[in-house]
Write a structure and sequence with these properties.
There is one protein chain. The protein is an all-alpha fold. It has one domain (about 30-35, about 60-335). It has helices at about 1-25, 30-45, 50, 70-80, 90-100, 105-125, 125-140, 145-170, 185-205, 215-225, 235-245, 250-280, 285-315, 320-335. The radius of gyration is 21 Å and the shape is globular.
Length: about 350
Amino acid sequence: MNDDKKLRETGRFAFVSMVITGIRTFSQSQLFWLLTIASAIFSITIHPLKTLANQPDSAINGIQNMKVWQAIFLGFVQGATEFFPISSTAHLKAVPVALGWGDPGVAFSAVIQLGSIAAVLCYFWKDLSRIFKSATRAMALKDYMDFDFRLCVGILFGTIPILLCGIIIKIFVPDFDNSPLRSMNAIAIASIVMSILLGLAEKIGKRQRGFENLVMLDGLLIGLAQALALIPGVSRSGSSLTTGLFLNLERETAARFSFLLGIPAISLAGLVQLQAFFAAGVDGSQIVSLAAGIISSGVFSYLAIASLLRFLKTQSTWVFVWYRLIFGIIILSGIATGFLENS
């Protein structure tokens, strides 16, 4: 009995020591970015709830009149942009709006992301299996210093912020589809701001830490940044990659961890919205369109993951910095000239 008590105390001590060690590894500049990102997320997700509640006049029921070929095309847009740091949700609104199809809505965008999750699971299946088995074994042995166990805890910590923010929005802003933060103007501004931040991260980041150097605090910090992606134009992978670079992670490491970190949040969001679709009584044609979008998203997401990881092994992220800047400027120009509505 005493031996069991000693083992538990040793395990708790090791866990606390691991957290303290992780915090001590951060320099003053990294702690500055922690406070900056945390305060920004707090301001964006808590303070403007009254603003979010002010809805524009029009609302679009996205999936209702969508053709199968349109769903396939939007699946391509989702798959091609989900894991690149350019915001899939922004493109899933901006592209169909520019083509005159209207906004497919938050629900459709979330559901077809299930295809992207399937692609992540397929691409990283061996890694995920190894991590899960190793983490499970570490828990059984109370080996809390095991890297895979700490990686899983880091992903768990990193998932909490976006879930909490998502719940807050779900409760207080039930018509988020028509929120001002989903307007074309907001998407353009978010894209431009994130392009500047990614450029700064590329310049400042030292890129000295590989995947084996990840600590739990990385998961929490990158998870806080990931929560910003609830605003279209920010980009979940973009905010995660940017924060990872600020934390001196290698580009490929930051991208790989971003993919793994996104699995729980994107899966839950997609499944919740999928359930909502069926609860609303979708008909056969809508189910076919959803299925086509999900499959298309999965195929192109897999290709995007493979190509991005290869690209980041030898190249910088400047191409995405300039793309996001130009993307935002084009949207603002379109609104200014009347070609696009600020809906």
